[in-house]
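Need tokens for this chain, all 436 residues.
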Amino acid sequence: MGHPALSAGEARIARNQGNCYAARMMRHVIFLTALCAWAQNFADIRPSPQQLAWQEMEIGVLVHFGPNTFMDREWGDGTADPAVFQPTQLDADQWVRAAKAAGARYLIMVAKHHDGFCLWPSRHTDYSVRRSPWKQGKGDVVREVEQACRRHGLAFGIYLSPWDRHDPRYADNRKYDDYYVAQMTELATQYGPLVEFWLDGAGSEGHVYDFVRYVRTMRTYQPNALLFASLDFMPYGDIRWVGNEEGFAQEENWNVVDNYGIVRWRPAEADTPLRHGHWFWHPDAEKRLKSLEELMETYHKTVGRGAQLVLGIAPDSRGLLPEADVRRLEEFGAEIQRIYGRPVAEGDPSFLPIPEGRRIDRVVLAEDLAHGQMVRRFRVEARVGNQWKEVARGTTIGHKRILIFDPIETPALQLVVEASLGPMHLKPMAAFYGGR
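Here are the structure tokens for all 436 residues:
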């Protein structure tokens, strides 16, 4: 099934955004724990089948590549000559293999960044790979990446920046929206099923975006694609930005949010680059590559808090991921498998026997989100002698919750839920040991 059409309230908000947008941006998101005064029962909100499937994927990658790669820039101003785009060894399969080795199950390709340069031969602008010397102007990066994803079993998504620093139509709301929707349509109809469509919130320069039109266009051609945007940028998306580029979700992380009076299941996606501060590749920046320890901390503070982790990867001027980046991605995926590939014990959601003589130092909890998110506060206890000793506690569980504690030997763990919004549906509890 696809997504429902915009409600009258959503449409009204979009029509009025020119007058009210700035003021409404100031309203912060209200999470479930603060919503008891509202008439609607937030505990009744459920995810769509597409959202459930997306949350199960847990890890994705976001690929930045374009003129900035060849000009040692993070932010292009839209004046770069297309001739600078000339990769000599572009290999989309290498990108996808490295992403898959890291544990990623989907890839989002930046088809157009803020500089306006298009990595596919768009019919609606000449500022694209069509004017580059790469493959004599007959290449299509988006196509090559999409096909590589299909070959290697990764779901494919697209990032299309609403902000455009090149196209002169951007100064005219209606003309630019016509252009943007035309490009959305190209990407939504020519590259197979999309798992996610990214609307980055950077920049606006006074432009008022016609979000209703954008959403209807994507729902028309890709009804199963999930729309990503920050909460203050588009209130009726399917996925929300976690709020920072460190890749850390809040310890208390709810999937249901109320934004501008629109109540939706909208899980968090945490994006962070593989190299500190760099979404695009830069020469001589190997020291910025994040360590394995940093990546594992990011994993525990995103996936381990019920959010999605998206790692930013960046091919170099050859069109290849640097060898050091590939190795780090492989190490990251291997470490996740080493620790979480085989539990010490797994079973009952509330009471878990541990084999005699086995050490554990972490537990993984999960709710069956098909029945909603219910747990508000909990603790985990280990049996010590004739008593139960608290080893970890938390607020939300959601899709997945990883709790790490000092290594112990214990005959059993138990989960004690101290507060919930309603009847809970917990998945089996699992205990692990991360030591060597």
